[in-house]
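ingest -> fold -> write
write: protein_1
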Amino acid sequence: MDGVDLRCRHPSRLPNDGEYCPAVADKGDTLSLVEENVPGQARRVPHLFLELECDRPLVGPARWRLVGIEQVRVGRGGARRSKVASKVLSIQVPDGWMSVEHIEIRHVDGGWIARDLGAKNRMLIDGQAASEAELSNGDLLQLGHTFFRFRTDVPDVGPATVDFQGLEGVGPLSTLSPAFGAVVERSAAVARGRVPVLLVGESGTGKEVLARNIHAQSGRRGALVPVNCGAIPPNLVESELFGHKKGAFSGASHDRPGWVRTSDGGTLFLDEIGDLPATAQAAFLRVLQEAEIVPVGGSRPEPLDLRVVAATHHDLKRLVREGRFRHDLLARLDGVTLRLPALRDRTEDIPLLLVLLVRKVAPERPDLRFTPAAGQAILQYRWPLNIRELEQALAGALALSPSGSIEVAHLPETVVGTEEPEPPRELTPEESKHRDELVLLIREHGGNLSAVARVLQKGRTQILRWVARYGIDVESMRS
């Protein structure tokens, strides 16, 4: 399925004072999500994401860059909209469970402090009620039935505000993630060339979807031919890839073109290229070098118009060092490398993926809702199997809730927290430094968190949240 082009009504800037900025993305010109080819080179700045409205999950998410903002105010309104005035970002959401003035987030001494404004339904941060707390990277805020995510590690690229509400043309490559947006934009830039593309990412991150989009934008007349290198029987690899002549071996009763020849004039997508056997690696290297193929049992080279997109979840350089992958083949395949982020690093896109799934398996459910507990479970789960796992979980939940809201009971046990799928994510350098300082203080005070809170001039609840986030074993430090 091809992605859609998106357009943002405002360029990459902060709105003028008093200007309402829905910045609704719609069909049209390409939405420029990146200003640099490599997002890792961009500075990291704080953003606020609206990830999910439980009562309107198909409306879509939004994001706001907080550069130049001193205060954020969030409350209930008749429609979802935002404006900036005098360095204050005001956000309104039509959530009946929110108060008109629900919370404020202030930029204080380099940090961001969230404060409940006396709302009837208190602010929850990572599931815990809080009157006031300093926000940390990745914190999930629940306001009424709406979830926001605060992040400090977002590349400073793209528009200041992007809001997907009202967008009917959401495609599989639509994104609020600057990191994934950069990947999509780079893939479009190389699509019409013949340079090989290597897609690297965990299983289920959408490598085949991106490969199909590259082919769709390439202008090549032939088909995209997907090949799972790890699923070919070892004794048939060369025959399946390169074809064979009649009588080439026992059972070869007729000529067969093979997948490489079938992709002539189109795109050959080699999924799990790291699993390609060594003998086939050598033969395929020659195909890439000479742009021609010799079928098994044949003697005359046949010219090819070949474009290769390969994908892997392996570290191919490590496989080269271990002698399991040819370095010269890697050099041929690695024309442009695109690294797809894991779903846990782009949770803001979960509502967009939800829209696609509902459209696919339950188009009759435009009034779909989530209970807040189910919404929190989906947004806090790590999704080790990425988009594929999300699709299966939501498909199952839709089947178990033919009408009404999706509840926690409709979700898999792993998602609701009864199983631990993987260790916590890798900390950013800033978080690692903060964790080390916190561990030192806790050890100095014999595990007394109240004493640590007094030293840091923070509430004990805040210290508990940090301890949970960083996985600190306080009991081992108690005197």
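write: protein_2
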Amino acid sequence: MADWDAIVFIAIVLVSSVICFCGHWPIFEGTPIQSLNYCCTGGCFDLLEKFVGLVCGARGRHVVSSVEHYCCERPNPILQLFYFTILGGAYFAFVGTSFQYIPGPYVSVVHRYLGTVSVVVGAVLFLLTSCSDPGLITSTNVSDYLTMYPYDGILYEEKTCSTCNLARPPRSKHCSICGRCVARFDHHCGWTNTCIGENNLRYFMAFLFWHCALCLYGTFVIAAIVAGEVKKRNLVHLLTFYYGVEPSLQKLSPYVFQWVLAFYSQQLLLLLFLGILSLLLTGFFGYHLYLVLTNITTNETYKWESYKRWKQHVSSSEGPKVTSVDGSASSSEQVSSPRLVGGYLRGAEFLGIAVGFSFLLCG
């Protein structure tokens, strides 16, 4: 049963990763992978709405639309609660399965306390990011934000937010989910249920860095626990002396892995869970660190991509109707960023949920 738990967990994570991050690639065009990617990044609600509409009529379709609107287009604590479920589930799984092996040959007793403190610090950083002001633009501070960055005449021109009825500072954006303008808007984070902007980006980066370190730390501690148990039970000596296994890493590894899988499957599952999260979070943190170092926001990356596509369209089009477009006058109208960010963020969130659920189910 332990073998199947590990196999199911690995399969779920690998398939979910390919679907979420590779499903839009041209190589998967017209394949089930592309369809599943569309489903995971927003199409599932469209399909559900059509199905319910056929079965229950307009009233049922309205209910599904309302649920989608609340879950995807309005501030809600769903992913915040799920974060605490995953954090608490992983911590108590570690306490219940691995605390008994601390201290060990490679693990000091200090890790009993250091692990708990690390989890608490991670939760505090999460709450700090969730509850801090992202840089809300109001009538009292809009003048300060207007002088913070210059207008570039391409992505940002002098204009007024039609919803807030306030002048829109450069690099700001009106978040349709929160219903407010945010200075130096980066993105709306569903996990923290708030926007990431000028004032809370530092907390968000600290949150990402700490959770990368936390997952890597947990991976190291569990690996050290398992290695310590292998040493305490003289497994290598037993395999080589009594069973005649050649004393080389290549020959011993399959037998050691089978033994660990048979007697320490819970630790192995937790190790895989934390290891995969470490890779995902490290990649996400590295991407955002790159954006910080290059002084660009997530929102601006998509705006620039949209602008480049528009410029390519203008340069490749024929006829005076298109080529006579005045870039300085119309660039801001043409560079309306498509809602690709939401799809990718929903894909990343779906992957995080899939990893979490597979861990909770298999654990």
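write: annotation protein_2
The CA atoms of residues 317 and 336 lie 19 Å apart.
The two ends are 11 Å apart (CA to CA).
pipeline exit 0
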